[in-house]
Specification:
alpha/beta, single chain, 9-stranded mixed sheet, Ubiquitin-like (UB roll), 3-stranded mixed sheet, Rossmann fold
């Protein structure tokens, strides 16, 4: 009589073990079936990306960017979902990689043309000025390595070594503690555009600016082709400073623009007060 409960308990445990194994097999089969379904479905040809169209860059960049993007379409996510699937392709990753590898690109847009093609539209940066490593201390001397800047003050590509007097762009120089300035900002875009606007207004008044040279004390030397330079501070009101300079130059006692070659510098850091020093 006492052995029967033990016999029933053993049979119950065996039954539970078989039920557990049975459910485990069923769940494993279901999981395998789900995996096979997603593996197969995500890789079906009718929504697999095969073509990549790149527009807006140079022919050399276009070919490289196409190969770059294609590399991200190989393989699968978690050994399951096809990366080349039109609904799952890594759009954001492709955009980020293009930005990181090609500083000459200002904007990237990646999108589907259809279920078999993605379009990559590029907008290249347009140079508006140069940032250069200075070798000399006057505008006419040879400059060091020069790099192109866009209107946001982003330095994006090398430029041929030149001289300030022959450069097709205005030149900016400063101390950037890096082996290469590419991928960095010279300053903020607002300040750069204010300085460019100042140079344009000065040119309209007969004063040819060749370079803006940032100094270690925070001031900026504005070098003129005529040989003189203006000194401004970060808080200098540039339009007002230019008006003050023109008033000084046009004064009969100064002698006009022609006499700028006799001036070492004109200091504009003190509001309406102007100080200048003649060359020895």
């Amino acid at each position: 009589m006492r052995g029967r409960p033990h016999f029933k308990s053993a049979r119950l445990q065996e039954r539970r073990r078989k039920v557990f194994i049975g459910w485990s097999v069923i769940l494993l089969a279901l999981a395998l079936g789900v995996w096979v379904f997603f593996y197969t479905a995500s890789g079906m040809s009718w929504w697999t990306i095969r073509d990549i169209s790149v527009r807006g860059g140079s022919p050399e960049e276009t070919a490289k960017i196409e190969n770059l993007a294609r590399g991200f379409l190989y393989g699968r996510y978690y050994f399951t979902f096809a990366r080349a699937n039109a609904l799952l392709y890594p759009k954001n990753v492709i955009e980020r990689e293009i930005y990181d590898r090609y500083p000459t690109i200002a904007n990237v847009s990646v999108g589907l043309s259809n279920l078999h093609q993605i379009n990559i539209n590029l907008t290249e940066r347009v140079p508006v000025a140069l940032w250069c490593e200075r070798i000399g201390v006057i505008a006419a001397q040879t400059l060091g390595n020069c790099f192109q800047m866009d209107d946001t003050a982003f330095i994006f590509a090398p430029f041929a070594t030149t001289t300030a007097t022959t450069s097709p762009f205005l030149i900016f120089s400063s101390n950037l503690s890096t082996t290469t300035p590419v991928g960095r900002y010279y300053t903020n875009g607002s300040r750069l555009n204010n300085l460019l606007a100042l140079a344009q207004k000065a040119s309209s008044a007969g004063l040819a600016v060749s370079e803006f040279d940032d100094q270690s004390d925070g001031t900026t030397d504005i070098l003129l082709v005529e040989g003189a330079k203006f000194i401004v501070a970060p808080d200098t009101d540039l339009p007002t400073a230019l008006e003050n300079v023109l008033t000084l130059i046009n004064d009969p006692g100064f002698g006009g623009v022609a006499n700028l070659s006799k001036i070492d510098y004109i200091d504009l850091r003190f509001g309406s007060k102007i100080f200048y020093k003649a060359k020895k």
